[in-house]
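Annex B. Sample input.
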Amino acid sequence: MTAAETPSGHGATEPWLRVSPLKKLASHSRFFLTLRSQEGTYHSLILFRLAPGQLPEDGVDKGAAQPTLRDQIYVMEANCPHLGADMSHAEIEECDTGVVAVCPWHRYDFDLKTGHSETGLKACTYHTDIRIDDDGVEHIWVETPEGGRNWRLVEFRPVSEEFADPPPAPLDLSHLSISTPSPEPKEPEPVVPVQDPPTTLMHWAVLILNTADPMLKVQRTRHAVQLFRTGQLKSIGHRSAKAPRPPEAPPREEQYARNTVDPVKIARRKNRAVMLHALANIEQWAIDLAWDIIARYGPSHPDLPPAFFADFTKMALDESKHFSLLTARLAALSPSTPYGSLPVHAGLWESARVTFPSLRARLAIIHLVHEARGLDVNPGTIEKFRRAGDTDSVRVLETIHHDEVTHVTTGHRWFTWVCAKQGVDPVQTFREEVKRGWRGDVKGPFNAEDREKAGLIPAFYENLKGEMDGEWDQGKQVQAEVAVGYEGATM
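Annex B, continued. Sample output.
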């Protein structure tokens, strides 16, 4: 979806972007929007849909075609102009002049219409409009940012809000405990350690990386992201000389560790349960990789803005959701095959190890090669489950695929950010990183549509081959075979 020059409701001709059918806004009260310009500039916005009771009594535009809906919807920049806090969990308050969003970090307030704050700062706000298309469907349109051309919407999804949305039914994650039973039951570890509880995002990242129990890893991820978004952490902590270091490899529970083998020794996937188990394994490593990029590169890159940490905590939360969805489907489909009971591999982490010295290499290899390959193969995987009549798994996999497009977008956003800081060309630099940090061809066929939506034009990946030697893994790993999505699956 690209911007169109259309008359706005404010008497001017400005570029506007169609965002979503209006009825989709009924599911949540806040939505993430990510826009990208033709020049490759990213812009993150938050859409607030206020409840009627949150509107000031004199704030309704009596002359508007649909005053109630029009005055419920506000859009502003996603990061606080003070220190860059994520505004997705801002509190909404009414004041004498209107409705304000209050930053969760330092309580700076910003008028949702004008962006003005009593502190003297100003946040960017964007006009919205409600229009009816040729089919009679109402859509919400948003004014595009200044300084770019042909803006397109590359992400639109709800913010998960425990404080605003009805709480979801608790997930039964008991099947994730895969340790061998012992005569003396192990006391469950608390989500927040009793001794030395983490106070910064860096401390939480390292704690989660060192958490072997996958159920606890998911719970700690949810808790840490909520603390970060709502301003309950002391700081990000990446500029501290005492920032903790991530492990060389995240630990795994005993049974899982016993079942870990080399990727080349894993047979082709032959049924849905084995496939779901394999995908869940990938998602568990993906949780760790999202926290690792925060913990490993944050201290060595003190100039990383808060938006970087907001993006990758959101990714960690997504991967936790994916893991939970897949293991729940696995338990429903094959109760005799609990997670951790089948052979798995650590190929994704082994591939990431090659990138440890370089944030730029990590973004290229993990997010723009591995995750981008997932965009290519996931539609075929979904189709196999659809042919098998497994509609529940199809819904899960479609959710995951939608989120993974945004993850590749995040990788592209920060890869191009690093390249801009270093004054190098993103396409040429990506190809150089792949030649150094990948072995074998970057495989097709490619899902060009979703890759392009994520920012990867064909010049990035076509006719590209990695030239890395094989000494890094003592010959145990065939890296090019480690692809997100397990494209060799058959059913």
